[in-house]
Specification:
CATH class of the largest domain: Alpha Beta
Distance between the termini: 27 Å
Shape: globular
CATH superfamily of the largest domain: P-loop containing nucleotide triphosphate hydrolases
Helix content: 10-25%
Strand order of the largest sheet: 7-8-9-3-10-11
Largest sheet: 6 strands, mixed
Number of domains: 2
CATH topology of the largest domain: Rossmann fold
Number of strands: 22
Strand content: 25-35%
Length: 377
């Protein structure tokens, strides 16, 4: 999937009519969390501020262990924050001396393993969260909306993985929550079913009038379906923005590396240019303004690096992936592991030596100053 280059897009807040202020279904204010047996300095979340607006689907994106699921559990009420507060539809549910248990928060939850009741059939599972005597017509409508009509009497073990996932979503939406939390809901599905269900999710939430917060470690998935994406690393929020803004204006080098799958090259300022192991870049027409005296890095895309086989080259081909219309090569250059996208005719074997250089005219971004650069010829 190529993400370079893309135009800057407006966020939902910019597109929303000014006379209709966005309603914040979920607000996280200064959230700090640490598990009971953790060391004093081992925070699972550090100072998180985040809001989920009306009608949004927001993705929580990051590597394993970055705090995504913990954040979801704090909103749902399965964990308590050590500092900060959680508000749902404007009312405090955690922090500030208040605490509401999960069943009183009015939040729907879809677990990674579906958590369906094996002794209940599909209809009984879908209606499980409804209060006694509550109208079941919404559950019936959801089963039809999600393609489960006619399967009401089947038990979970009689359904396919995709059908179980749809049933878990129907159960979460049946009580009519304003917010639905989804913890990697598509990770256990095969590729075809996963792609189909994730493309349907925004429309289903919209039909139900619900906002959604979805946990994923897959950048492609988050960028494909979410209105905004919150990128976490080691318990800290690096950036929350629309997919196109993340691509065009990554706030940190980590966001560029993880979300864009780009390459980070150590860099030094030499006169009016930036020098890397693969060539020089400059910042035409604006003057360079490196931030401080700390280390500098340049982010470039996998398309921005040219490869030439050379038996005496310093780099070597570590591996490759076939992407259908191109190759994705993993190349080792000293301590650097680089990703290169090359055309199909560039079919090389693993272990071959090569020389690398920046493709003239290719864009780059200098961190931490976030200045746009252009590779020189």
């Amino acid at each position: 999937m190529s993400l370079w280059p893309l135009p800057i897009a407006s966020t939902l807040a910019e597109l929303w009519p000014p006379e209709l202020p966005l309603r914040e279904h979920v607000q996280l204010r200064g959230i700090w969390h640490r598990y009971p047996n953790a060391a004093p300095e081992e925070w699972s979340l550090e100072g998180i501020d985040l809001a989920l607006h009306q009608g949004e689907l927001v993705g929580l994106l990051g590597p394993s262990g970055c705090g995504k699921t913990t954040l979801l559990r704090l909103i749902a009420g399965f964990e308590r924050p050590e500092r900060g507060s959680v508000l749902i539809d404007g009312r405090p549910v955690a922090g500030e001396g208040r605490w509401l248990p999960p069943e009183r928060r009015g939040v729907g939850m879809v677990f990674q393993d579906y958590a369906l009741f094996p002794h209940l059939n599909a209809w009984q599972n879908a209606c499980f969260g409804l209060a006694r005597g509550q109208d079941t017509s919404r559950a019936s409508w959801l089963l039809e909306l999600l393609g489960l009509k006619g399967l009401e009497r089947r038990y979970p073990h009689e359904l396919s993985g995709g059908q179980r996932q749809r049933l878990a979503l129907a159960r979460a939406l049946a009580p009519g929550p304003s917010v639905v939390l989804l913890d990697e809901p598509f990770s256990n599905l095969d590729v075809e079913v996963r792609l189909r269900l994730r493309s349907e999710l925004p429309a289903v939430l919209s039909r139900c009038g619900a906002s959604g917060l979805i946990v994923t470690h897959d950048p492609e998935e988050a960028l494909a379906i979410c209105d905004r994406v919150a990128v976490l690393r080691q318990g800290m929020l690096h950036q929350c923005a629309s997919p196109l803004r993340l691509v065009q204006q990554p706030a940190t080098a980590f966001v560029g590396r993880f979300v864009l799958q780009g390459n980070l090259l150590p860099a030094q300022l030499k006169g009016e240019r930036i020098e890397t192991q693969l060539g020089c870049l400059d910042c035409r027409p604006a003057p360079l303004k490196p931030a401080g005296s700390g280390p500098q890095e340049v982010l470039v895309s996998p398309d921005a690096i040219e490869l030439q086989l050379d038996s005496k080259g310093e780099a070597w081909l570590q591996g490759r992936e076939f992407l259908g219309r191109e190759w994705l090569y993993q190349v080792q250059l000293g301590d650097l592991k680089l990703r290169l996208r090359l055309p199909l005719e560039a079919e090389y074997g693993r272990g071959q030596r090569c020389q690398l250089r920046l493709r003239p005219g290719s864009p780059g971004i200098l961190f931490p100053s976030r200045q746009p650069l252009v590779a020189l010829g």
